[in-house]
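quick q for whoever's on today - can somebody do inverse folding on this one?? i tried earlier but teh output was garbage lol. tokens:
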């Protein structure tokens, strides 16, 4: 299971704030746009689905991560694991995108 650096930050924040964290707080902490927050949360939701963990947002409250404690503990372990960074800078990422487009 792969998480980007930003996804790890979001997951850590969600785990650190069991009562929820607002979209605005995520934007300010990560210094990204509202659209980026939504996109990252959507990606995270798909990835963590296999762990029986989900992100919820009750009306008028912030985002929260919920699941059984054993599954949340597993997620915490996955976040802490060192993983090889596939694309460490923008040039590498752009090159990978161009290569995949050319191969199509």
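ok took a stab at it. sequence:
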């Amino acid at each position: 299971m792969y998480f980007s650096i930003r996804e790890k930050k979001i997951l850590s924040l969600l785990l650190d704030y069991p009562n929820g964290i607002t979209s605005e707080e995520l934007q300010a902490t990560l210094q990204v746009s509202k659209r980026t927050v939504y996109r990252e949360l959507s990606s995270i939701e798909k990835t963590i689905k296999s762990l029986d963990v989900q992100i919820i947002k009750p009306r008028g409250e912030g985002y929260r991560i919920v699941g059984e404690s054993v599954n949340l503990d597993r997620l915490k372990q996955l976040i802490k694991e060192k993983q090889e960074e596939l694309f460490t800078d923008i040039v590498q990422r752009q090159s990978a995108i161009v290569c995949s487009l050319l191969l199509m």
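fwiw The first strand starts at residue 53 and ends at 56. also The first helix runs from residue 5 to 16. so keep that in mind when u check it
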